[in-house]
Amino acid sequence: MTKPTARTRWVNETFHADWQVRLKADRVLHEVKSKHQHLVIFENATWGTVLMLDGVTQLTTADEFMYHEMMAHVPLMALEKPRDVLVIGGGDGGVLREVLKHGGVKRATLVDIDREVIDTALKYFPQVSDGAFDDPRSETVIADGVKFIAETDRRFDAIIVDSSEPIGPSAVLHGKPFFTSCRNALKPGGILIAQNGLIFSAPEHLEQTTSYLAELFPTVAPYTVTQPCYFGGALAINAATDGHALTDIDVATLSRRAK
């Protein structure tokens, strides 16, 4: 094991109020500091390429597949024929990549407020999107997700909200007005998916979102994913639908859809 030296760069993960972890930056690839945010992308021997924003780990190339697969395949496998899918956020392209693995999907629209996020991801970890942005079935819209979903007249089989934590500008993507707009933009029997934070260290996040969704949908079904880079335990994902597609699928049906 390499011994730390005075010149070793460590990047602190400061999301949690009462404890911190830090990651060794073997090589810093990109770093931007402004009065609004601190973004750093670096290489780490364990985690691969790491993206941290304002002291919070957003993505590592070593384990990103766990989150992206669970965000995309759980809802799409719950539907018989998902054809039109909306991803709000997710500028790294990982959820979009997994959505497009479903051959029945005819159009996958990604809405992100910042084109620079997409361009940065394509430059420093293109393997995450793996060509998804060039797929003829994909569509990229640079817009405020809250405004887009409130104004669109399109209807989707699945809406996947790949947001960061409910802090600062992202807070509106966790509120009841936003979820109400999402419900209105779903087709009958459609599914809404939302990232819901760490259960152990932030249980109030899951509790609040579940409460909002239960007021809007007859079926709400949170589930979890083990995401090692999100230090603090299991990560919650919330799912909601006006039908029972999420909770009443037999193994034979899932097997047929998988094939």
Radius of gyration: 18 Å
End-to-end separation in angstroms reads: 44 Å
Order of helices and strands: EEEEEEHEHEHHEHEHEHEEEH
Q: Indicate the mean pLDDT.
A: 91
DSSP summary, beta strand count: 14
Number of helices: 8
Helix content: 25-40%
Give the key terms:
alpha/beta; single chain; 4-stranded antiparallel beta sheet; 259 residues; 28% helix; 8 helices; 8-stranded mixed beta sheet; 32% strand; 14 strands
Description of the structure:
The protein is of the alpha/beta class and 259 residues long. It contains 8 helices and 14 strands. Strands 7, 8, 9, 10, 11, 12, 13 and 14 form an 8-stranded mixed sheet that branches. A 4-stranded antiparallel sheet has the order 3-4-5-6, with no helix packed on it. Strand 3 (27-33) and strand 4 (38-44) form a beta hairpin. The longest helix has 15 residues, at 64-78. The protein is globular and about 55 Å long. It starts with 9 loop residues before the first strand and ends with a helix.
Please provide a brief summary of the model:
28% of the residues lie in helices and 32% in strands.
Please render the helix and strand layout as text:
Blueprint: E1 10-13, E2 21-24, E3 27-33, E4 38-44, E5 48-53, E6 56-60, H1 64-78, E7 84-89, H2 94-99, E8 107-112, H3 115-124, H4 126-129, E9 138-142, H5 145-151, E10 156-162, H6 176-184, E11 186-198, H7 203-216, E12 219-220, E13 223-225, E14 235-241, H8 251-258
Parallel strand pairs: 7-8, 7-10, 8-9, 10-11
Antiparallel strand pairs: 1-2, 3-4, 4-5, 5-6, 11-14, 12-14, 13-14
Helix pairs in contact: 6-7
